[in-house]
Request: fold
Amino acid sequence: MNQKWFLGFGVLLTLAACAPTEQSVSVFLEENPENLSDWGVVVVAKSGSLALGQHVVPYDLNTPLFTDAAHKLRTLYVPPGRFANYRTSQALDFPVGSVLSKTFFYPKDDAGQLLNTKYTGDDFAGEGLNLAKVRLIETRVLVHREAGWVALPYIWNEAQTDAVLERTGGVQSLTLQLPDGDQQSFAYVVPNANQCAGCHAVNATTKQIAPIGPAPRHLNKVYPYVDGEQNQLAHLSDLGILDGFNPAEQHPRNANWQDERALLEGRAAAYLDINCGHCHNPHGAADTSALYLDLPGDDYTGGNSGLCKPPVAAGQGTGGRKFDIVPGQAEASILWYRMNSTNPAVMMPELGRSTIDHEGVALIANWINAMSGECKIEG
Amino acid sequence: MNLHQIFIALTLPAALLASCGEPTQKSASQSEMGQVNLAYQKQLQLQLLDAKPGDIITIPEGFFSFDRSLSLTVDGVTIRGAGHDKTILSFKNQIAGAEGLLVTANDFTIEHLAIEDTIGDALKVNEGNNIVIRGVRTEWTNGPDKDNGAYGIYPVQTTNVLVEDCIAIGASDAGIYIGQSRNIIMRRNRAEYNVAGLEVENSINADVYENVATNNTGGILVFNLPNLEQRGYQTRVHHNQVFENNLKNFAHKGAIVASVPAGTGIIISANDQVEIFENVIKNNKTSNVVVSSYFSIGSMTEAGIKESFDPYPEEIYIHDNIFEGGGNSPDMLEMKALRIAMFGLKGRLPDILWDGFANPELPADTKRLCVQNGAAEVINIDGPNGNKSPSMDQSAYDCTLPPLPEVTL
Reply:
């Protein structure tokens, strides 16, 4: 299934997807435009697709954030003549004037029913996202201004013609049809601008917002561009918008969490990195917990990895469990419990989901269950 | 009558009216209570987003219901209500967000309002300098319940923090919890019906005084937890009233406070340089004061605790408190048995209970626990040997320690 999915995804994209339009990008370095279309980054084209603006490059991650199983179209734009600098362990160092976007959408069937599916083959058609096959929910824009990055959430209108700036976020009631035919209803929460910073201020002391996804370890994969497949980092380098990338060298690469041929440990680490590491790192908002889940981090030991680590301020989040990770016993582990909850006082991550990522939970459970040893209590 | 009761009394007439078969005459406040004020939620969150340093955001008298967290990231902002019994931010209808209000900013003041019934924490301030929290009430109006939010007032990784004249009720962990912070004054607050009333954790230089902690599981906690960047020390606990903290522990197991025995007045765990003086500590059924190592929390593991962590309390100085009652009905089975074995059926445990874990690597004359408190006695319950040989030998505690400095902000 995974294999098929990847092939389908690749073929369709290679054929036609995400071809640039003539729409040029406008970078707003002062004000916050009311409409997403004002940016020209992603625009609804006459062909009935969501197309990319000029010099806008789509990208994908080895392992993405869950976000209620929403599909995502990610784009980056670097002003012509400028370039991002390569950084090994952080997001690429984009110049002022860069604009990143992430459009969240769900596939829909012919009757308009939204689907919870991993299959992305029908998402793309013609010049971009096929609006006959998907429903757009929100587009988050990150713009690099003189004073730093700013995060702006746009919510798509009912007619799917444009998205409107909603800095206070929003809530939408959604019902998805699961692969087994069951219906899943939930409140999809669009974060407010501060909550964007809640994840994107990966250093909670400086509180500076920064991109998370476009770091080498996430980008280091082949992407099916319109004109053929290529490694994303190499592609950006060839376009002249990435400096300092040497294709002859080894670059960090997170596993694809769904790739069953990859090592379980690597898949789990990649999953925790993108879903948790932006807060759970030694400088992040969750450094208060002493649990670090980021990659490439230090080899966290002595509690910081979560192994046999008692909680600091988990409150109800313990669910009656004593340690973050109990080797061999996923269900006795706080990590598993908090991933497997939708109670806002319990669940992790705190933001960005209203449903449980059952496949993610299963992956982490398998990983914990494969650990040996025990948490022996002293004293 | 406590404030909770006053609030009930105030709302009672409206409730009675409504129950008398006049649905059309429902009071405005009552209908508002069931509905989320989406327009006001958006307006207030926009104010928080657009705030500039120096701004004062005023929230008027009224009952405002929200369905999502509020958050502030701008430095230098004051949020001001009309009083903790007049300006009420209710999160009873909350569907998302791990706290009611999350602040990640410096030079922040919040005063004179209430935050009620949040799903998670009521007010969290994560990293910030110069934080003032004044006259704020955080409350779970349904009373103690394990599914209440964990913390009422929760500044963490803050410096120069003043929490005064606040009221914290019903938290399933700690009512007022200052963690991993430095330079702290916690004064004139009232904490009731929480698992932990007031807690200072992994913090340096804290002054806790003139508070009232009653009807909690444990009244005042001074803790150090492992694996964190900052080790806590130097806390003064004085001129507080700490009485009848006998509430059954309703924390989720695994939470650190779940290990606090019901009936604990003041408890020190793995912290150093704590001076407890001139408090009135009464009728806490397990013990008026507990001095404990991290071992007694029951979560000490070799794999999960950094080697650098010091699980032992040292330089604890208890003097000139007024003790009365307490120790007569301890929470844990071992303590119940120990009380009867040592002090008889009608006896009581002494005012100060030490778990007996002492760092063997320190010199013999290390001042672990000094007591100059009249007739008050210490029992060493011999935790390391499974309480086999508890001791009433007082000689080790007859020492003094230099007074800790007053905290100034």
